[in-house]
Design a protein that fits this description.
Length: about 140
């Protein structure tokens, strides 16, 4: 008589039908759930544009020791999220608030509003449209 030890194919036949059904059901459920977990990739140019816009605002407003941009400017996986107001042939336009370090966390008012247009490839600031008191 053949032994099932060491033979994965023969060992597999020893599974109880309910165990096999549960395993297959779980795999099917994962197969359905996985596509919803996959997020769209943000283009590299958009991430570059976001980083450049944020760093430009930080520099123009005195550095990180005295200024922090709105949290959406750190959302690289979302390409700037709500701070990105336009993405077209002219480039990426970001509009965001800023203030003293900790301002969003401690509910302090923003002291600065910045609007910046970055080139479509994300490598150059085309224009600082506005950088001043919140409008």
């Amino acid at each position: 008589m053949a032994t099932t030890e060491g033979n994965p194919f023969l060992t597999m036949h020893r599974f109880r039908p309910l165990t096999l059904l549960a395993a297959l059901s779980g795999a099917a459920a994962l197969g359905v759930a996985l596509p919803s977990l996959v997020q769209a990739q943000v283009p590299a140019a958009q991430v570059r544009a976001l980083n450049l816009a944020r760093n430009t605002a930080v520099t123009q407003n005195g550095g990180l020791g005295v200024y922090r941009p709105q949290p959406c400017m750190f959302e690289t996986s979302a390409g700037g999220g709500s701070c990105l107001i336009s993405n077209n042939a002219d480039g990426f336009t970001f509009l965001f608030l800023g203030g003293k370090p900790g301002w969003p966390e401690n509910n302090s008012p923003a002291t600065t509003e910045t609007e910046i247009l970055v080139a479509p490839d994300g490598t150059a600031v085309e224009q600082v449209i506005y950088n001043g008191a919140p409008r």
